Amino acid sequence: MSNVVAHADDHGHAHAAHHPALQHHFDTMAQQKEAAVVGMWVFLLTEILFFGGLFAAYMVYRIWYFDAFAEASRSLSLFWGGLNTAVLIGSSLTMAMAVRCAQTNKRSATVNWLILTMILGTVFLGVKVIEYADKFEHHHVPGYNYQWAAAHPSTSLGAGEAAGAEHAAPSTALGAGEPHRELSLNADQLQLTTQIYFSLYFTMTGLHAIHMIIGIGIMLVITWMAYKGRFDEQYYTPVEMTGLYWHFVDIVWIFLFPLLYLVERHV
Amino acid sequence: MSGHISPISLYLTIFMALMVLTGVTVGAAFVDLGQLNFLVAMIIAGFKATLVIWYFMHVKYASKLTKLTVATGLFFLAILLGLFLVDYGSKAFSQMPPFLS
Amino acid sequence: MLDKLKIPERNYLNNGHGLASWLLTKDHKRIAIMYLISISVMFFLGGLFAVAIRLELATPAGDFVQADTYNKFFTAHGVIMVFFFLIPSIPAVLGNFLIPPMIGAKDLAFPRINLLSLYIYWIGGVFTLYAMLSGGVDTGWTFYTPYSATGSNSNVVPVALGIFIAGFSSILTGLNFIVTIHRMRAPGMTWFRLPLFVWAHYATSLVQVLGTPVIAITIVMLGVERGLGFGIFDPARGGDPVLFQHLFWFYSHPAVYIMILPALGVQSELISTFSRKTIFGYSFVAFSSLAIAVFGFIVWAHHMFVAGISTYAAMVFSFLSFSVAIPSAVKVFNWTATLYKGAISFETPMLYAYGFMGLFAIGGLTGLFLATLGMDIHLHDTYFVVAHFHYIMVGGAIMGYLGGLHFWWPKITGRMYSEFFSRIAAILVFVGFNLTFLPQFVVGYLGMPRRYHSYPDEMQVLNVMSSAGASVLGLGYALPVIYLLYSLKKGAVAGPNPWGASGLEWQTQSPPLTENFIEVPVVDREPYEYEHVVAKEKHLV
Q: Given pLDDT bands bounded at 50, 70 and 90, which one contains residue B95?
């Protein structure tokens, strides 16, 4: 077993033929693929904890300022949020199909499913642009010219303030408008605490959107590689890795949607 | 060597299930269940996530190590959220800073 | 029989020349060398700031620099030492170099990701240094809100960004080690035949992978708060600054275990080798590394006892903090039992190991003082805390790093250094260290606050002792630079196993081949079986 002071024999490439994608520090394609899968999941663990910090902050403030969270959540568009959820779940399906086609060595089908996934991802981002633009318009971006009370007169004291009446009430499509029940926070307090909600909303959805943009970028590269015929049933690992990443992004949204859009909708 | 290849019908089934569950989540949000609303939404979301992990991400057919890795991540997320609650759940909080209440 | 030893003709150092062959390498050993150079530079930069601190504190009055500047000094010292020296140190240098040979692999699982982690470290380092030097940050390395978010007008965001970037380097290293240790072990290398160094790095990697993302998101939240005016921690909008502390310490406490666990692994190797005896209670020591990693995640709020957490939470975290001392104690007991009736010797690596035992014990025990709620009320934010963590991080981690560096230097370079000067340096480090930090326990107990640039006159004697000790310590750190570099050209050729150590890495040539092994070794022995080791060839200059 000792190879002390060994003369290095020429580590030529005359050993048994192996798949061109097998890297030399691995013994078999199976070992290489398993390492990649475990490695990708370890990376996804870091993503779980990364988003986890935001979920922790959300948890604390939802307990503290439930009314602010409920009011702010009701001002989000359930239509756009629901649509996006469907779009993203659809893109998970198309991504799973893309991986399957790579597994079964169907080159052009792989490319097509990947392109479809990217299209759906882009639709999602487009909808987010619409939603964000609306937020900017209604001064719901914290820090800069934030105004909650103007469009949302409070009723906690039972006395509605007509002060906001001149500002156009947000359309029903956005589900905003008069508060729906007695709140424990007055207008001034809502002006402040809803900013916490929106700070978290923008940070969470913004971070999610950045992950999607990166995912689409990665998919562009993978699609190109697939188009060039780099994958076969022995080696489709990059496609599978991309799939894992994309499904994870979907899972994050699966939680973001109810947490951000569905707080006390029944009121 | 290739990994397990799932039938297309499986993927379609999971997709339909996810869409239905999304609808259920939205529907349930409009029913007044009080404190349970949050729990119901999270349980459904957790189930959806499980479907994605188990079938779309092929963890059902993956090695024990992969399954252990997933479980570890969830365990530590639970520690993060749980121990935060040890503090935040055990102290009174004022609704607002004093100068604004 | 004693042929004159020669540096092997083909090794990883001469396999390819030129800058590109280094900067674009996939060889984990070359990456380790580049990390070694990088963190050494960072260490001396961080040390410069320490010099500035001790210069100021040599006199009671704040007469060397202004308070704001002093704040920037200790912030720079902390940020550089924690994020750019201690956290990478042993894993990125010794772990990177040794884990593949120790497990019988040709490289880590993801060599290009290894290289990427180095690039990311450089980028984060450059960012942070630029921010430090172009105005600096005065929040302390802990950059608590609301001061860091809205109060401070220093370069918070660039420094935070630099740390964010460097965090990815840490994550990628940990990810690589986890996959490598799980999937790249040679045939016969079962988990319980692994060197304890590997167990320690596995545990460290778990912490790196699970903890670092949380400080990353905390920095993101701080960034949007400071840069975009968002309000997550802002008390004026109902936010909770203590939430920042919870999120910060959720990572930063496990981070200290990232810093010490690898050194604990080194310690096991040194104690065993220089007692020529198998580690007592191998599986206990192995599991204790995992236990420290896991327990390390549930104690963070002991940094926040007086910050405004509930009394209930404080009691829970105090109790949990006591429990995390147990696996550390298990290690100390097992090392002691290993030494007992072993054939102990006093080579330089072992000198560091002896020092480590005592200093780590003191650091750990004083941690228990701080975990005690009643004591912590008095000791929090005093020099007692500063002394405690320096005992662990300097008396423990850095001595572990130096001991490991001296132990594996012959393997890494093929050369032996001067045993005479290295022993002097080790003694200077030990004496200088204690002279610097022992007085700090006393002044802390007497009430001297940390992060203040002035203090009451009656504490001057102890502070002067501390500053004097720092110069001895500095000398002790400077010496290795000289004799280690000297050894590269003039040191005696080491041969494959100058210490008579066990472990697969000692079965290969020094320096190793690029691919580590010509043929994959098959392991059929338990670890630390010294009877089978090639006879020791002692080289004393």
A: low
**What is the average per-residue pLDDT within A77-103?**
96
Note if the pTM is more than 0.80: yes
Cβ proximity of C429 and C402 under 8 Å: yes
Residue A41: closest CA among chain C residues belongs to which residue? C175
Tokens of A47: 């993503």
Domain ranges for chain B, please list them: 1-57, 62-91
Contact A261, A73 (CB under 8 A): yes
Alpha-carbon gap, residue A52 to C216, rounded angstroms? 11
- The residue to which tokens 């992060």 are assigned: C451
With b for 16 or more beta-carbon neighbours within 10 A and e for fewer, the A42-79 pattern comes to bbbbbbbbbbbbbbbbbbbbbebbbbbbbbbbbbbbbe
Give C1-24 pLDDT, tens digit per residue. Answer: 455 788 898 999 999 999 999 999
Is the Cβ pair B80, C298 closer than 8 Å? no
DSSP C498: T
CB within 8 Å: C236 and B97 = yes
| Number of domains composing chain A | 1
Assembly ipTM:
0.92
Q: What is the average per-residue pLDDT within A194-209? A: 96
Residue of C nearest to B96 (CA): C238
> Which tens digit of pLDDT belongs to each residue from C146-202?
999 988 888 999 999 999 999 999 999 999 999 999 999 999 999 999 999 999 999
Residue type, position C400, single letter: G
Question: Residue C467: is its pLDDT beyond 70?
Answer: yes
Instruction: Please determine, looking at this structure, whether the domain spanning C28-532 carries the CATH number 1.20.210.10.
Output: yes
Pairs of residues, one from chain A and one from chain B, whose beta carbons lie less than 8 Å apart? 148
Among A residues 177-236, those touching chain C with beta carbons less than 8 Å apart: 189, 192-193, 195-196, 199-200, 202-203, 207
- For residue C100, whether the previous peptide bond is cis, meaning omega lies within 30 degrees of 0, is no
Chain A residues 3-32 with a CB less than 8 Å from chain B: 28-30
At A135 the pLDDT is: 92
Q: Do residues C478 and C428 make contact, with C-beta atoms less than 8 angstroms apart? A: no
Which whole number is the average pLDDT over A34-59? 96
CB–CB contact B96 C238 (8 Å)? yes
Give pLDDT tens digits for C25-43: 999 999 999 999 999 999 9
Is A258 close to B25, i.e. CB distance below 8 A?
Answer: yes
- C283: buried, middle or exposed (CB in 10 Å: 19+, 13-18, 0-12)? exposed
pLDDT tens, position by position, B64-81: 999 999 999 999 999 999
Asked if residue A173 belongs to a domain, the reply is no
Q: Is the peptide bond before C521 cis (omega within 30 degrees of 0)?
A: no
**CATH number for the domain that contains residue A222:** 1.20.120.80
> B4-62, pLDDT tens digit by residue?
899 999 999 999 999 999 999 999 999 998 889 999 999 999 999 999 999 999 999 99
Map tokens 């290993």 to a residue.
Answer: C338
| CA of C114 vs chain A CAs: smallest distance (Å) | 13
B68 touches chain C (CB under 8 A): no
Q: Which chains touch A (3 or more CB pairs under 8 A)?
A: B, C
Q: Has residue A3 been placed in a domain?
A: no
What is the model's pLDDT at position A163?
36
- List residues bridging with A232 in a β-sheet: A235
Lookup: tokens for A28:
């078999």
Q: Is C171 helix (H, G, I), strand (E, B) or coil?
A: helix
- Cβ within 8 Å of residue C365, ≥6 positions away: none
Indicate the SS3 state at residue A25. coil
Residue from B66, B85, B87 whose CB has the most chain C CBs within 10 Å, to mutate: B87
pLDDT on residue A121: 97
Domain ranges, residue A44:
29-157+181-261
* Nearest residue of chain A to residue C250 (CA atoms): A53
DSSP reduced 3-state for C382: strand
